[in-house]
Structure formats: C-alpha cells, structure tokens
Amino acid sequence: MRTEDVLAAIATGLWRWDNASGTVSLDAEAARLLGLSGLPRDGGTVTQAAVRSRFHPVDWNEVDGIIGLAVAEGTLAEFRLRIVDEEGRVLRTVRSRSKPVLAEGESHYLIGTVQEVAEPQPGTSARTPVTGDWRRSREAFLLDAGRALAEARSTAEVLRVAASLSMPGFSPDGLAVFGVTADRLKVLGHHGYDPTDAGPLADMPLDTEYPAAEVIRNGRALYIPNPDEYQRRYPTIWPLVRGFGRHSWAFLPLIVAGRTMGTWMAAFSHPVAFTPDERSVLTTVARMLAQALARAGVAESERELSRGIQRSMMPTLGPGIPGMSVAARYVPTGGGLQVGGDWYDIIPLPGGPAHATGHGGGRFALVIGDVQGHDVRAAGLMGQLRIALRAYAAEGHRPDAVLSRASRFLTGLHDYTESEAFDDGDHVGTYSAPRFATCLYLECDPATGTLEIARAGHPDPAIRLADGTVIMRPTAGGLPLGIDPDTDYPTTRIVLEPGETIMICTDGLLETGGHDLDSGWERIRAVLEEHQADGDTLEKLADALVQAVHGPASHYTTGPLADRREDDIAVVLLSRHGRPARRAPRRTVLTVAQAEPERIAIARQQLRDLLHDWADGEQIDSAVLMVSEMVTNVLVHTDGDALMVAEAAGEHGGRRLRVEVSDTSDELPHRRRPGEMASSGRGLVLMEMLADLWGVDPRGEGKSIWFELYEPGGLAQGPAEPVPLGPSVGSPTAS
User: Would the CA dihedral through 46, 48, 53, 58 be positive or negative?
Assistant: First the structure.
C-alpha cells in the first residue's frame, strides 16, 4: 500500500511551498482540501497566489506570522486556517504541520501535511485558533507595510519590500513600478516577471495607450478585473500583455506633494473583483510606496552628492614612494550629507626628481586639516583651503611659509561677521560668521627620513618606534588658520628612522565616543602598540584605528564625557621601510620655551612613555624628577629655552638612559648646601643621589647638563664619580 493512499484515506495531503519560486506543489488530496480543481489526478504545481486565494484573509496574516517565527526558530509551523471558495464562502477548516527549510539567501520552503479538521463545521459560530475580522486584518497589514516601507533606505530596498508584502486574501504575484524620465515611461523595478520578457513595455513614450501611462497622464487609478476588459480597453497593447498569464490588474498613481511621479502595477494570476475594501488597501499601499520612493530618492541623491564631494576632496595617494608607505582614511560624520571640513592631501614638491613624474623618489608633503563645522559650507571652505595649500607648496615655500600664507588666505575670505548686515541697494542680507581651520603640514625627504613639521592649532603627531613603543611627538605650532593673519608657524625637524611610523590625525579620531584628547589618545595608543605597521600591514593598521572608534569595540571604550561627540575623522600613516639597527635607541626631543612652562609636564610624560617597559619603576620616578629639576633650572636662571633630548639604548634588562638638557647660557651651575627650610638649591644634590652618572658639558654657545641611569639586571656600568663643575663665581644657583 502506498503512503499517499494511506494519507488520502485519513483526509491528509502533502504540500511543498517554495517561497523562492513562488510555487506550491500539491498531491491530489491536498489539492482537494484546498479547493483547487483542474490539476492532474496525482496532483501538480500551482502558484502561491492561487493557493493563497483559497485562504480566509483573516487567517493568512496570523499564519504568515507563525511561519516567520518557525523559520527564525527552526521549529515546526502548526496552524489552522479556513478554506474559502471563489465567492468567499468557507468550505472547510484544515490543519497543517510543516517544517520550514532554509534555501539560498533568505528564501525558504515548507514541507508538510494538510489535514481536514472535523470541527468547527462551516457555518457554525464556534471560534477557532485563528480569529479576527477583515478590518482588523487589513489594519494589521497596513501597519506592517508602513513600518517596512519606512525603514527602506534605497529604491531597490523599497521595491523588495513592495514585492514581499502579503496583502490579506488577494496578494498579487506580479508587481512593477514605472517612473517618468523626460517624456518616456520606464520600469524602475519589478517582481514576478522575467526581465527578458519586458520588451517594449520596459521603455515607451508617455503617450502610449498603456494603463500605466494613462494613470500618469490623468492621475487616477485603473482597475481591470479580467482579460476581456483589458483587451477591450487596450487592444493595441494586449498582444504584449497576454503572454504573462495574468487575470486581473490594478494600476495606481504614485503621488507625492500633488505630483504624479510614477505608477504602481499589481497583477494577479487569479480573478480579483476589486471590492471597495480591496481598492482601499491598494490605494493606501500606493501612497506609502510613493512616499517611500520619494524618501529613498532624496537619500540616494544625498549619498551621491556626499560621495562626489568626498571623491573630489579626498585625493588618491598616487604612485608608491620608494622606501616609504602611506595609508590614509577619511570617515565623515554620521549626520546630514555626511560631509564636513576634515581633509588630507599628499603633494609632490618641486625641486626633486619626482616633480615631473609623481612622487618618484623626491620630496613630498603630507597635509591634514579640519575646518570648523560639519556642513556643506565647511566642505566648501575645505576645498578652497586645500587648493591654496597645494598652490603655495607647489611654489616651493617652506612649511612655515605655506601655513602663514594659508592663514592670510582664509582670513581674507571673512571680511564680515554674521552680525554685520549689508544693503547695497539691490540686495539685503547678512554675511556668515568666519570660521577657522586647524592644520598640520609635514614635508618629507624619503632618502633621509627627515620630516619638517609646521602646525596650526592641530593635534600633535604620534610616532611608533621600531620596537613598538608609541609616543606623542610634541611639535612647535601657532594659532589655527584664519584667526590672525600675522601668526608665525615655527618648524620642528625630526628624523623618521627605518621601521618607524608617524601618525597624523584630526581630533575626531581622538574625541569621538565621549572621549577628550587625553583619554582618546590612550585608546588610540593601545591600537598602535598592538599592530605592526610596515609594508602591507599599514593598511590594516589604518582600518584598526577606524574600527577602534567606530567599530563594535567602541561601545565598550566610551569616554568620561557625558555627551558622545561625533566628528569627522581623517588619519594618515607614514612608515619608513627597512630594518632598524640591532640596538636602535629610543629617542625623544622636546623644546620648552620660556613662555611655555606648562610644557614641563609634557616633558615628564614623554620620558615616562619612553620608559614604559623599564624594569625599575623607582628609576623612572627618579628620571622624571631630575628632568623636571633640570628644565626648571633653565627657565628660572637663564633667558633662553630648554632643549631636552632623552635616549634609551641597549638590550632589554641592560639598557642605558641618557638625558641631556641644553640651553644657550655659558654660566655653569654649582652645588649648594641648602638649609633645612630652604626651598631651592637641591637640584645637583638630587642628581648626585639618584643618577648613576651625570655631568655638565660646556658647548660653543651654552652648556648641556646630563645624567645617565642603567637598567638593573644587565651589564650596565656602575655610578662614576661626579664630573667636576667649573668655577662657581658668578654662576647661577642650582635649585
């Protein structure tokens, strides 16, 4: 005995519902239970629209939710539903137990049974697990459709949502959206049709005798309930439409702000009477679809505008630079047009072999900056400023001169403030408030690794040393561009050694996520220390820096500030190739000017960063104390600036730290014996107690006070006798 015969004997049929192809395969018993006639004796395959036309409209909405939950949870879908005839009368109630099986992509198919339920009988008032009425079902459907269309962000998404809508009781199996371009009607998207079958219907003149074109011309919906009506009203186009095998059509205008922007066509493989309730549902869906398409069109235009601005403002890095690698990233802020005032640029400089052929091996400049604001005006000012900087650099000016000229250029763009109105007789208005820009200009010689840096109110660069140590490199700077046209921008010269990487960035990389500059720097330094940054991995490091700020991990590294500041991000990495010497020293250099005593704190932090893995913490504290004393002596007892040079050399566990503080005064310090209550005079006494070796070296102009510390655990030298100081007569008192 066959299994099919056994199932038929107990009024149970089998079905396979393929959501991807929109077809349902039924055996004979399942076809009988669903009221489908005309199939072969052993069953067959029909469209899902034909099957759904036999479901009670109230039941289908609940069934669709049950199936969706079963797909999500991987469980069986069990439900009851009422089967209706062509007139909408209930024939019987069936029960189904089906297993959803996932296919390719997001599609699935159901395999299961359909069995007749003896109770409740048709016509009785007994309640079933599926309850409700047509009005409630329609409202639930429209709420779900409105939510889905509101969340669509592109035209393609809107069309996909429209194709997936499950209308209660009369879902179309063919959809098309027509739009108007000039005087032609074009298909924007469709569902349920083979793209190769569209033919002349995909693009036709707007005066064609076609329902979609007529709807656009007069702005009124058209409902065609049967093929005879279609042929009678549109005999010319009917031969092209007949082959699609549809039985009813609805053409509805897509109207936004009183303007008909297109037509939505819903085609049915089964007859639809288009009752007032059905027309109401279709009209409401058409209105929501028109609004969704309008929003998607505006969003796509904004995205294209943003991409266009970004492409025009963000340069390509161009050909490779022998001996060096460059990586850069730009991430716009999340709101508005996603454009702002951040930018970076790479500029070949004149006077080298690369001037005519890209970068080659010649000198080049890296520029990074941030114009105040996150709007289109900021982007426009950024474009003007970027062009001006390129022009000044191409003329061969030094970094300080480039920024000085750029500041005068930006200041000249703002001759008026926002509060100053103008009235020239023909026009009345107000001028916008001036804006400033921060900028860092870095000129590089690839052959030697020499970098000359000028900074205008911008965050300092950071350097990742060859052994993975990361330090912030303080550089001299001036006011942001556009504030004072006469501002000077001093230049700082450093050398990028083989294996080292320098990072320059805008403040968005540091301050996004509720961070300030200090806490944001700690977050970024951890990323720099964890990643290698030479060769191909420089691109991975750039991605890791952005991910640390915008990726999933950023939600667990929020800063201490109450508000989460969102800002544009620009970051550029420059790495010098080559293997460092076996004992390449760590080195940092810092100038503390007479007018900047607060930089003593930066000097202390620089030294701690340099000695982050030093074996003896007490020696670190001693070194920081001595540096503070030495720099303070220069600022208090001389008229010049202090230059600190710190270098840690050797193998781990046996390294030597040497710190020199130089000044331009020829007067040498001398030791004192301060009293118990004295507030100064202990500087050299501290060095005798704490340093392993120290001394004072006269220079051609000025002197250098230095000390050395030896890391415990190695072969470092022991402390030597103090170096004799020169005559103390007339010498300043050491604090």
Answer: positive
Are 443 and 402 contacting, i.e. CB atoms less than 8 angstroms apart?
no
Q: Which residues contact 350 (CB under 8 A, 6 or more apart)?
A: 394, 395, 396
Q: Distance between CA 384 and CA 80 in Å, rounded?
A: 68
Nearest to 446 by CA among 357, 315, 539, 578: 578
Phi, psi angle pair for 379, to nearest 5°: -65, -40
Residue 510's H or E segment, with its range, is helix 508-511
Question: Tokens 């004295």 — which residue?
Answer: 678
Largest CA distance in the chain: 123
Query: Which residues partner with 224 through β-bridges?
Result: 249
Q: Any residues with CB less than 8 A from the CB of 603 and at least 6 apart, and which? A: 590, 592, 627, 628, 631, 644
| CA distance readout (Å), 476 to 303, 374, 489, 570, 589 | 39, 27, 8, 21, 12
**723 secondary structure, DSSP code:** P
DSSP summary character for residue 321: B
What are the phi and psi torsion angles at 75 (to 5°)?
Answer: -115, 175
Write the CB contacts of 414 (distance below 8 Å, at least 6 apart in sequence). Answer: 433, 434, 435, 482
Which SS3 state, helix, strand or coil, does residue 351 take? coil
What radius of gyration do the chain's Cα atoms show?
Answer: 39
Q: Is 239 left (phi over 0), alpha (psi -120 to 50) or beta?
A: alpha
Confidence band, pLDDT 50/70/90 cuts, at residue 232 = very high
- Identify whether the C-beta of residue 606 lies closer than 8 Å to the C-beta of residue 474: yes
Surface-to-core class of residue 718, CB atoms within 10 Å of its CB (0-12 exposed, 13-18 middle, 19+ buried): exposed
pLDDT digit string, tens, across residues 572-626 = 999 998 876 666 678 888 888 888 888 899 899 889 988 888 989 899 999 999 9
Distances (CA, A) of 326 to 210, 460, 537, 624: 58, 18, 11, 35
Decide: 69 and 78 in contact? Cβ < 8 Å. no
The 10s digit of each residue's pLDDT in 160-213 is 777 677 666 667 878 888 888 878 888 887 776 766 666 677 788 888 889 999
Whole-number Å distance between alpha carbons of 603 and 625: 11
Q: E strands of 601-713, at which residues?
A: 642-649, 656-663, 693-698, 703-710
Length of the chain: 735
Q: In the chain, count H helices and then E strands.
A: 18, 30
Beta-bridge partners for 442: 366, 453
Backbone dihedral angles phi then psi of residue 653, each to the nearest 5 degrees? 95, -10
Residue of 337, 409, 344, 342 lying closest to 376 (CA atoms)? 337
